[in-house]
UniProtKB/TrEMBL annotation, chains A, B:
The record marks Y141, K192 as: Important for catalysis. Substrate binds at R96, R106, R134, D224. The lineage of its organism: Bacteria, Pseudomonadati, Pseudomonadota, Gammaproteobacteria, Cellvibrionales. It catalyses: (2R,3S)-3-isopropylmalate + NAD(+) = 4-methyl-2-oxopentanoate + CO2 + NADH. InterPro entries: IsoCit/isopropylmalate_DH_CS, IsoPropMal-DH-like_dom, Isopropylmalate_DH. Catalyzes the oxidation of 3-carboxy-2-hydroxy-4-methylpentanoate (3-isopropylmalate) to 3-carboxy-4-methyl-2-oxopentanoate. The product decarboxylates to 4-methyl-2 oxopentanoate. It comes from Dasania phycosphaerae. This is 3-isopropylmalate dehydrogenase. One of its GO terms (molecular function) is NAD binding. Belongs to the isocitrate and isopropylmalate dehydrogenases family. LeuB type 1 subfamily. Gene3D superfamilies: Isopropylmalate Dehydrogenase (3.40.718.10). NAD(+) binds at residues 76-89, 282-294. Pathway: Amino-acid biosynthesis; L-leucine biosynthesis; L-leucine from 3-methyl-2-oxobutanoate: step 3/4. One of its GO terms (biological process) is L-leucine biosynthetic process.
Length: 357, 357
């Protein structure tokens, strides 16, 4: 039974890390006889350059036809001054929305080999393993009305709409409760229910669902406090569930607690488990094409893809073991390099992985 | 010339830290012959208990009649299940809005004596001195329409409106540019202009104003990246300016970088410099009435009040010097206590300040 994976390299360091991720997947594909076939598509800046739009129809059609998407990163200064409606980011948002990838899983894990990389004290972050579940196709990212209008007095006003309905809240909360059940059994729902009505409903629905998950200990936290607690004592968290905007902010903060954002994968899933997998880091245009990028977040994204969308747990394990091995061997790209370790380029890290497999 | 200060003790630890702040102010008032007269008013939970509403008309009237407000903290579990429209927080939001206190200054300063308290590595935070300028009377906190409505299909939807007009953006950006000019000359404006139109206008206006401040180096950062950079390398920032919601989140994260949120004051100013001064921390109901609260953030808020609203710089300096002195002497409330230091209660910390003055 063949599986179709759509590869979207994207912009900046996207192409170079994609090459390494594909090398790893190719080996795993053979070793585990997975029958993975590839297709490729354009998104973001690369798509704008080639077709004039950030999400070509062909890309969306290919994405709908595949079993899973492995994606690098998009954006860069080249497209910064382009018309707002065709910015690279619109391509990514269009894909998330077009495929209804509402469930975004962002783990923040501290690799023991990289404990030094964190800006936090070792005792605060050692053993850190948080999962942030972010709603990805609703909230203020997609709410209408939105825009910039001219008021009666002649000045302009920018406006957006933050909204969530019960169905949207229930389906993301379900993903989070299920994840908490399989992990440490603790779920913290983050909102701003003391100010925002959109999140008053959020809190009510999440609370209501708790009765179906007696094995999960649910708590609620305001987003300002959550940002604070992530800095103060991040290990108090197991799974965090929150909306699109708060999830964007908190997942980046959480990722940075580990000090090695070049190591963190993410998954964006629809209701059937089909998904898009991508590194937590961005397209890093400043180092693109220089062989400095860390391919491990994308490689680990491929592992997540095998686990969640392609039902290939053993293959996913094999990749994760290989990543642990190259770290144990001391291989480090510049972003995670410390004294005494072996500084390697993007492709040399790929070589090390290939050897480890 | 007499000055009228309105004291609002509030809820939780509010009353006990207010007592100490007033003791300090009383001495300073005499020493510097400031002619400060006091009035008192109810807000939040205390106001709900006494009058049924979180912001009694009398409180708003007194607030409008005074030169400055010194405020403790509000809220607590006692009022958690109260009707949404009369929650304690509504009192605070109503006061901010009623007095047009749009300019919220939240410094995040690491006291060298307390460097150990931070969860971050010493080299990452030593000497930290950031000022977050948060817009406080607009954005999604106050945007209409808002509420919870029933959709055609019978399910409910919670919604809020995020908006900023040019005037609102200009006046807060001006506060931030002026502050940056007097400090390190660097201003970072935080937005989510790659997704939210409300912040596309924000970025445009702030950028436009930069030409009037050639001595200030302006940069722009997306909010997710800002959350990340605060964790990774906070000393890269001097002044940060942002909207109400992002400011809420980032200022709490920044405060927590110091590890001693019990030390941080804040100011909320109107266009004439009249202001409300309050600690960055909350009402901490769990330790209320136990003599464990740290009064220093409120004492330092009183110093900010003297400096910004009462034009009494020398008096403000004297308070800040006294705080430095008690820290040097090793006095510590439980929140900032470390081995070898003198553990003191709220009132003992007050005693130490009085002695230092
Ligand atoms: C590129 C941008 C639109 C995107 C987001 O805000 O969702 C990114 O920050 C992310 O978190 O995946
Ligand atoms: C109490 C709450 C409404 C308030 C806010 O969100 O503004 C608080 O968190 C703050 O930052 O002053």
């Amino acid at each position: 039974m063949s599986k179709k994976v759509l590869l979207i390299a994207g912009d900046g360091i996207g192409p170079e890390i994609s090459v390494e991720a594909k090398r790893v997947l190719d080996i795993i594909n053979q070793q585990f006889d997975l029958g993975i076939e590839y297709d490729e598509a354009l998104l973001g800046g690369a798509a704008i350059d080639a077709t004039g739009v950030p999400l070509p129809d062909e890309t969306l059609a290919k994405a709908k036809a595949c079993d899973a998407i492995l994606f690098g990163a998009i954006g860069g200064p080249k497209w910064d001054n382009i018309d707002r409606d065709i910015r690279p980011e619109k391509g990514l948002l269009g894909l998330r929305s077009g495929l209804e990838l509402f469930g975004n899983l962002r783990p923040a894990i501290l690799y023991p080999q990289l404990a030094d990389a964190s800006s936090l004290k070792p005792e605060v972050v050692s053993g850190l393993d948080i999962l942030i579940v972010r709603e990805l196709t609703g909230g203020i990212y997609f709410g209408e009305p939105r825009g910039i209008r001219t008021l009666e007095n002649g000045e302009r006003e920018g406006y957006n709409t933050y909204k969530y309905n019960e169905t949207e809240i229930r389906r993301i909360a379900k993903v989070a409760f299920e994840a908490a059940k399989k992990r440490g059994g603790k779920l913290c729902s983050v909102d701003k229910a003391n100010v925002l009505e959109a999140t008053v409903l959020w809190r009510e629905i999440v609370q209501d669902m708790a009765k179906d998950y007696p094995e999960v200990e649910l708590s609620h936290m305001y987003v300002d406090n959550a940002a604070m607690q992530l800095v103060r004592a991040p290990k108090q968290f197991d799974v965090i569930v929150t909306g699109n905007l708060f999830g964007d902010i908190l997942s980046d903060a959480a990722a940075m607690l580990t000090g090695s954002i070049g190591m963190l994968p993410s998954a964006s899933l629809d209701k059937n488990g089909r998904g898009m997998y991508e590194p937590c880091h961005g397209s890093a245009p400043d180092i693109a094409g220089q062989g400095k990028a860390n391919p491990l977040a994308m490689v680990l994204s491929a592992a997540m893809m095998l686990r969640y969308s392609l039902n290939a747990t053993a293959a996913a394990d094999a990749i994760e073991v290989a990543v642990g091995k190259v770290l144990d061997q001391g291989y480090r790209t510049p972003d995670i390099h410390t004294e005494g370790m072996k500084l390697v380029s993007t492709s040399e890290m790929g070589d090390a992985l290939v050897a480890a497999l």
